[in-house]
Give the backbone structure.
Amino acid sequence: MASAIYTEHLSKQFGRTAALTDVDLAVPAGSVYALVGGNGAGKTTLIKVLMNILRPTGGQAVVLGMNSEALIGEKFRQIGYISENQEMLDWATVGRMLDYFRPFYPTWDRSLERRLLQQFDLPLKRKLKHLSRGMRMKAAFVSSMAYRPAVMVLDEPLSGLDPFVRDELVESLRDHASETTVFLSSHDLAEIESFATHVGFLEQGRMLFSEEMASLLGRFRAVTVGMITGIPGEMPAEWFNAESADGVFRFIHSKYLGDESEAEVRARLPWATEISFEPMPLRSIFLAIAKAGQIRSAALREGTAA
Amino acid sequence: MKQVLHIFGKDMRRFWPEILISLAITAAFARIYPILWLPENNTGVGMLGVHNSQFRILANALLILMPVTWWILIARVIHSESMVGDKQFWLTRPYDWPKLLASKLLFGVMSF
């Protein structure tokens, strides 16, 4: 499947600080790609580079076949961008904002606009500055969806919204996912898991993994080993966050392959009386990786201090 | 040209109160300024029963106020699509840079 967005060795430096380092990702056309990562991981920087708001210092980003640095003017007729931090036409009413943007897009669909307005229950005559955060986000959605963009890029669109508004926006994204490639960053992992087809995990400016959601959920397992008399000394790299308490040994397996992995665990832990492999929701995977990252960073800091 | 006029029209709608104030000050200046052409010892009663000397003070104040309101208006129009920063809505909309610039220049020219 062709990529609607891809990056190759993408890097961005702010002075001496590396915000992005060698980021490679591919977003297949028609997919819903969720970019996750902790605060300061570089998600917003990556999105700003994709949108040519920031220029990369190394590598390249390609959106709809165009180098991101060439994305200007009419090229944005096919791209929708929504960010929680972006300024809006606060002085204008919702209706006037839509009237203003409409002529910029030859593909603007008035019937879709009306449908979205109705779905979101947006007051046309209210000024944007008088709308709640959720309503403003809905207005931004309408102004970026009504022209049926080939790609929608969303930077934390769901953060700080109440569950009802979140559901409405996710529902709307789902409705349009068949005709639009969606690339979004979010902390709302439970919500993302329900509709994203691909996921990328950014940590300290590096892409830890970028893959299909089904493959990610399939390869992570929370392993619990009961009644053991000892702990394995050397563990494979794909076992992490190991901990032992009250005769129970727990760890995360990041390359679970069904029977093959279960046999491997039994072989390495022959004294185990009971072993269970539990599938993990995206949130637990995210937290486990973040915890492993913190341990690695702490070890690195201790190493540097020593 | 369509986009230039579209952006220009948006600025006119957005800043109509400022435009109205600027026009009112310009009109007041045009009406009062001729007082300064009278000899300085002419202290008679002029328009609306106000002394010419008071009109002189007002005319001089308007002489300063008028370009100030123009500059404020032009600065506000330019900043409505600010060139600096990374949060402006127009950065990710199909704005044509030269046309945006042309619309702002058109506004500047119209103001003067």
Q: What stands out?
A: The interface with chain A takes residues 2-3, 6, 10, 13-14, 86-89, 91-97 of chain B (CB under 8 Å). The mean pLDDT of chain B is 82. Residues 20 and 92 of chain B are 32 Å apart (CA to CA).
